[in-house]
Each structure stands twice: as structure tokens, then as C-alpha cells.
Request: fold
Amino acid sequence: MALEERYEIIDDSHGKGGFGQIAKHRDRILERLVAVKRLHMLDDAAARERFKREAKALARMSHPNVPAIYDVQFNDEQMMIYFEFIEGQTLRELIQSGTALSVEKARRWFTQVAGALEHAHSKDIIHRDIKPENIIVSSDHENATLVDFGIALSADDAQSLTKHGYVIGTPQYMSPEQATGETLDGRSDLYSLGITLYETLSGHLPHIGGYQSLADQNETIPPSFDELIKECLVQDKVARISSAQEFIKRIRSAFRSDVPLSSLLTEARLHEIAAALRQMSPEDFSAKPRGQKLLLVNRLKDLLRTDKPELRTGTAEVVALLTHLARFEGEGEYRPVIHAAFEWGFNKAFGPNWQGDDQIRDALIASAKAANESSHRILSTEFLAFMAANDLAILPRWYAHDVRLLVTALLANTACGKEADDLAVLYDGLNAATH
Reply:
């Protein structure tokens, strides 16, 4: 079967990559979505051969955060690359949604993207167009995929392609050496990666004329992120961070986790407290001195009261962590945490197009499954009071889905006591309203 017969066009103008148009197809045989990039072939025979060699090099890449290439087709006018279609949102769409992205998510995504670059650079492949549009984040926010790897071009190739309407690279993200047409190596991609990380955490590009610290503006961001970004943005590539592997090492160790909690509670910024809490189990938390636990709960109350927009994702993480960690605590400590968890997990606006926090909802569901009798009673009574203000018939689908998971977890827990009848009524009403 010819390629044009095998692949059904779903969207002929799904997107535009730096080196060509992207179309969305369906593979009729394997019944999967495929992305197809079309690139105008150059007239020069030597350039055409370079394209073919580069296409083979791209096809040799095999990394979980890089789309797999399925096939390459050449004709007199175009080269077409058939590759894995990645579902999700671009990082650009997430930034433009107005949602402040958490530092922990950024660390996970950029570790994955840098891993993709490390793999590419080991094969002498330079991406050339790192930017938010070329990073696709999965719907569960667990994975980031680097897309639209380009073809290695000579200066003449680039000039010829430009005449055909292609844009090689994106000026705001270009390294100085790329902007001046010099020969590139992996350090050029790291310059662009640094700019992209800064934009992800701040919502805007670095200001011209001087670096503005992210940590000074937002205490959820560790100063080590600023240090890493500044090393990526060094103008002289010889003094720049040397490799994607070094980038990964630095971003993985960005949070201090070896500082005593007593010091953190009196001196630390929010990102350090969250890093310390991530290392604990509920049993570890329960063993801490009562004064430290009360300080943590009161720190959370202060965050909830002030509700600074730039701290919302950090506050949400602390709510999620304490929902999980404080379930062995008394009512005075645990109830305010759970009260905040329902409001911030389901109703809190984190931007014009984003409601609720999924990590808090996940923590509530996990805690409902593992709760003892005391914490189960707090979870159940807070949940019932929270749901009393909701009209079950008009809940958004995602909202109803997680409410159902939560009420199911509470009812299934052997610690479920006198609230069981009210929870069962809620469960039945939810099913009646949504089916």
C-alpha cells in the first residue's frame, strides 16, 4: 500500500514547525494517529543528500521524551517525515492559560526535556528551536515531550529555505551564535532551554538589559533555579553550562532537603519547607514535636489568608502534602488542612481557565482510602459540608469524577462510621444526577 493510501488526512494544517508544516494523519493499518512534517526540498543535489542523511540520523533517535519517527518519504518537491503524534497541550498553551506552573512540575518537565537533548546531542543532533511551542505536556502533567527536531543546515541551506517561507529558529530564544549564523553545538540548545525555563516560571521572557531574579519575586522558586538559568544564558558559549547532563544534575539538586526542620521553620522559604515535607511519611510527620507541627499548620493558615497569586501553586502543594502527612494528627491540626483542601482542590481559581488543583484532589482520595477512624470522621464531615453547597446536576465532568472517587474511597474504608448513611445518600444522588 502506498503511503498516501495508508495515511488518512485528519487535519492538513495541524501546526507549523520551524522547518515545515505539520499535518495530522491516521494510519489506516495500525489505527493510530501520526504527525507528518512536510519540508520543501532544496534544488541543490548536495543539499538534498544532506537532508536524506539528516533524516536517517533523526530516525536513529530513541528516547521516551522524543516522538518516534515511523517513516520518511522523498519526492522531487518535498521530504515528508512520519512520526508519533503526541497528545497533550503545548507548554505555550499552559503558560498562556494564566495558570502559575509549580516549580516541581517545571523541574520534572525540564529534566525530561534535557534528557531528550542529552540523547540527541550524543548523536550530534541539535534541535535549534527550543521554545514552549515545541514542548508538549501530557494531560496528566506527568510527561513532557520535545518535538520538532530540525534538520542540520548549512548557512546556504538556511538562506534557501528562508526564501521558501520557512523560519529557522525563533529570535527570542536563539543563542547569540545561532543569531549570527555560526556553527552550532549542544550549548546553543541549552541557551534556549534556559530562556524557556525562565518563561515557564515567570510567565514572560527575561527582560532585556539585566536578569531579574525569579527567587526574589516568588519564594516558591529556589535561588538555585536562577543560578542554573543564568549559566544557560551566558553569551560566550565557552563559559556556558557545558551539557544537558550537567543541566539535569543541577535541576535535580535544586532543592535543599538535608536541613533540619527546626531550622527550616524559622529561616526557610516556602520551597524549602515543601522540599522537606516531600521527604516525610505520615509516621515521620506524626513523630515531629508538637510545636513544629503547629508551626506548619499556622504557616499554611497564613498562606491561605494572604493568598498571593504568585504563591498559589506553592500553597496548593503544601495543602496537598499536609492532607497526606497530617492524617494522624488531632482535629485541631487536621480539620483546617482538610477544610482548605476541599476549597483549593475543587473550587479555587488558579488562572482564568483553571479551577481546582489535581494534586490536592489526589491527596484527598489517597487519604480517604488510608484514614484511621479519627481522620476519616474529619474527612467525611468536611466533605459532606462542602458538597451541601453544590448542585450535583451541574457539576463539571472532572469535578463529578473526582467527587465520585472520593466518596467511594470513604465508603470503602473500614474506618467508615456513622457518616456512612449520609455518604451513601450523596453517592446515590451523584449517580442519579450524572447518569
User: Anything to note?
Assistant: The chain has a mean pLDDT of 87. The radius of gyration is 25 Å.
